[in-house]
Design brief:
Blueprint: H1 4-12, H2 17-34, H3 39-83, E1 94-100, E2 103-109, H4 111-119, E3 122-127, E4 130-135, H5 136-145, E5 150-152, H6 158-161
Antiparallel strand pairs: 1-2, 3-4, 3-5
Length: 180
């Protein structure tokens, strides 16, 4: 025991061991309770957190309302590209790779569909683990509303079409359907 007064009382038989331990426990609790935890600052911080949470909830509710109104458009878009999707041929001999997210997916198409994909007449929409071959205008609309679903969208790249005058390989055109 660290307190000599408690030891003297214990030796004299005026207190028991349990009462000494209880007194030490109570003293420790009182010390912890009196520690300045910056309660004024803590109350202010809690008030700021509540205000920030209220603002966050309000913006989240507004976003949900906007999303609900767009869902009508998105649902219509889903039905449209499932209805207008071009059926992939069973005997597709050309493998067409496209990048979606961080993965590369492949579709087996025929020569006609491949040329339409490369010329920008068709595009690919990926929705719920399924790839849909749809007209280019519809893929552009999907890209505007829900860009996460756009699998392949042909875009005319004007800066690559300009050929430098002193390019030694200007006479050699690289085909778009070059397979590695």
């Amino acid at each position: 025991m660290a307190n000599p007064f408690q030891e003297q009382l214990l030796k004299a038989g005026l207190v028991s061991k349990q009462k000494v331990q209880k007194a030490q426990t109570q003293k420790r609790r009182n010390r912890k309770a009196k520690v300045d935890d910056g309660s004024a600052e803590l109350k202010q911080q809690i008030a700021e957190q509540k205000q920030a949470q209220a603002i966050k909830d309000k913006t989240l509710n507004e976003q949900r309302f906007e999303a609900a109104s767009e869902k009508g458009l998105v649902r219509g878009l889903v039905t449209e590209f499932t209805r207008l999707a071009i059926k992939l041929p069973n005997s597709g001999e050309v493998k067409f790779n496209y990048h979606f997210g961080n993965k590369i997916f492949a579709l087996y198409v025929d020569d006609k569909l491949q040329s339409q994909l490369l010329n920008g007449q068709l595009g690919i929409v990926r929705y719920e683990e399924t790839s849909y071959l749809v007209p280019h205008k519809l893929v552009e609309r999907v890209n505007m509303l829900v860009p996460q679903w756009c699998g392949y969208l042909w875009v005319k790249d004007e800066k690559n079409q300009d050929i430098e005058e002193d390019d030694p390989y200007a006479d050699y055109v690289i085909p778009d359907d070059l397979m590695w």
